[in-house]
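Continuing the batch. This is chain 6 of the set; chains 1 through 5 are on the previous pages. Same settings as before, nothing changed between runs. Recording input and output for traceability.
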Amino acid sequence: MAYLDNSGDIILDAVLTDAGRKRLAEGDGSFRITKYAFGDDEIDYSNYDATNSSGSAYYDLEILQSPVLEAFTNNTANMKSKLITLTNNNILYLPVIVLNQTTQNVQWNTNVGSGSFVITVDDTTSHLFYNNTLGQFIPGNNPGAATDAKITNIRVDQGLNTLEISNAYQIDAELQENQYIVEIDNRLGSLTTADPAVLVGATSTGKTTAFSFIDDDNVASYYLSTGDFVRTTPVSSTDVAQNDADLINTAIAGPRGTHCAFRIRASTNLRTSTYLFERLGNTFAATVDDAATTFYYIDTIVRVTGATTGYRIDIPVRFVKKQ
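Output for chain 6:
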């Protein structure tokens, strides 16, 4: 990684992503560039100087001369701030994606998770969490487990997070996310559907889904569309057939878009062995049945990106296994 010399001229430094390089290497003549993206991760727009005494041509000079990173292919590290094109020029607020922590059904663990979602990888570990005060968890050995006060889900909400506009409205269709890209280390886990109590119109829990792509770093990308994982957030309880207040208990202050919810199934490797825990993780001790008990853990993140706006959020996750 390096910076490009930038004296204010236009710079175009383009590379193929890992997926593009893989398809080019197939050499069957089918490679075509059909998608591209622009980003402005390096730009600090507060450097715009509308008071520059040299005139308007110099207002954005410092921005134009900001150092620019050279292009690199690692899809997990680039394009955090993607640029989008909107037809409506009267937009005052752009949508965000926020982690929903409004009810116990979607709260992470603050006891042994250090502020992360805990995934218990086998039956033994799950039972210890069931029967003790270890905090909220997702049963990674059985993500379809029935609703319980201790079992949680991961949910993100999308919309305009402002009190300046009433939340009695849905956001503009051009700003609504109808598809989310969820990335997770494929060595550690995969995605399943969440408890229907946190997703409008959902009917099943623990339903598996296949990843759309896996890169050379073993990061699996799931493209989740409206249906089992993504739903439009109602603006009032009268819009919800179950009349369940939790379904509209959004973390968005203003006009609502969609919400995405899921659980995580622990990989077979984590469920059946300690190899990855010993290579990638660590241990912690907790009191269980009045006795000190040692657990393995691996900390990682799950990244959720809106396909329409490119807005993304990193969610901390901890996989836990009784030693």
